[in-house]
Design brief:
binds 1,4-dihydronicotinamide adenine dinucleotide, alpha/beta, 5-stranded parallel beta sheet, globular, about 325 residues, 7-stranded parallel beta sheet
């Protein structure tokens, strides 16, 4: 029997993994995030399963190696939280490259519809018997230009949704995707021409703070910015400046630069000490969701199924198809 330590788990993780249980794999569910302080919880385990806000740094990897843990199975697609350089040749890292692009693409469109038609404000108004329409004017999405940065699995699915709204679609990606439902342009042209900009590229060293003072300056007045990708793609202070000046009319953020300490946990009884996040949340034209875009039944089941296959392949000594530490 092999034992796997699952970090940062919630009830919905436990439920979906129950469906794909393997008699030879004993899962130990922990609520703690994996980081330098908690890595010792994985001692005596054969593998570890981690999520987006676990910090798989060099110290963590060296400790895991010393415990004889040979595999970190990420139950997500992104891997910007892993020190791959340290991992290579010492600890295998596998991921779930694709589970449901629909979940994330649909969440992105959901945020656009909510921000544009001000549904979050309308919901609160009518519950308070306030039936005024003042301040709720939106615009038709029909014929508006959406700029998609990153046209991989999620960006492509998002472009198909935008096509359904008869939007003009622009894309920027260093690698072209033949199925993409729009016109490829340079990043500058996308920034200058889009009414709505949606981020769907991975976070890399090169594109950290892709959205900053300079790139916001190039955008149309009144642009919407949607980020369901990774928080560090946006320099949050630049975004706040853009929102304050009115250059940015609205922002939909499912991810946030400093989300690790906050997202997935309930702080409703406490004062939040992150003034930047508090500023964003206080704005009527900003919606923050706590890295929720992946959270559909279909995505959770697909994540659990692929993760269990990844673990089984490792324990059976088979080739690791979803390895990223090669
Ligand atoms: P993918 O690998 O299929 O596509 C990513 C695309 O981005 C590729 O075509 C790549 O060439 C392109 N790209 C890379 N660097 C770029 C840059 N600097 N500018 C423009 N394009 C660039 O990945 P997929 O599945 O579409 O996921 C995209 C991202 O979505 C993930 O990396 C992850 O950060 C995020 N994500 C967020 C979730 C959430 O719950 N909020 C859930 C799943 C993924």
């Amino acid at each position: 029997m092999k034992t796997v330590a699952f970090f940062d788990t919630k009830s919905y993780d436990r439920e979906s993994f129950k469906k794909f249980q393997d008699p030879d794999i004993n899962i130990r569910f922990f609520e703690n995030k994996l980081n330098s302080d908690t890595v010792s919880m994985a001692a005596c385990c054969d593998a570890v399963c981690a999520f987006v806000n676990d910090d798989i740094n060099s110290f963590v990897l060296e400790k895991l190696e010393s415990y004889g843990v040979g595999l970190v199975a990420l139950r997500c697609a992104g891997y910007n939280n892993v020190d791959l350089k340290t991992a290579r040749g010492r600890v295998h890292i596998v991921r779930v490259p694709s589970y449901s692009p629909y979940a994330i693409a649909e969440h992105s469109m959901g945020m656009i519809l909510l921000l544009n038609r001000k549904l979050h404000r309308a919901y609160i108004r009518t519950r308070d018997h306030n039936f005024s329409l003042e301040g709720l004017t939106g615009f038709d999405l029909n014929q508006k230009t959406v700029g998609i940065i990153g046209t991989g699995k999620i960006g492509l699915t998002f472009s198909e949704i935008c096509q359904g709204f008869s939007m003009d679609i622009l894309g920027y990606d260093p690698y072209k995707n033949n199925d993409f439902k729009g016109k490829y342009v340079s990043l500058d042209e996308l920034l200058e021409s889009s009414d709505i900009i949606s981020l769907h590229c991975p976070l890399t060293k090169e594109n950290k703070h892709l959205i900053n003072d300079k790139t916001i300056e190039k955008m149309k007045n009144g642009v919407f910015i949607i980020n369901t990708s990774r928080g560090q793609l946006i320099d949050t202070q630049s975004l706040i400046n853009g929102l304050k000046s009115g250059k940015v009319a609205a922002a939909g953020l499912d991810v946030y630069e400093e989300e690790t300490a906050l997202f997935f946990e309930d702080f409703s009884d406490e004062v939040i000490h992150d003034d930047t996040l508090s500023t964003l949340i206080s704005m009527p034209n900003v919606i923050v969701t706590s890295h929720q875009a992946f959270l559909t039944k279909e995505a959770l089941y697909a994540i659990a199924e692929t993760t269990m296959k990844n673990l089984k392949s490792y324990f059976d000594g088979e080739e690791l198809q979803n390895e990223i530490s090669v």
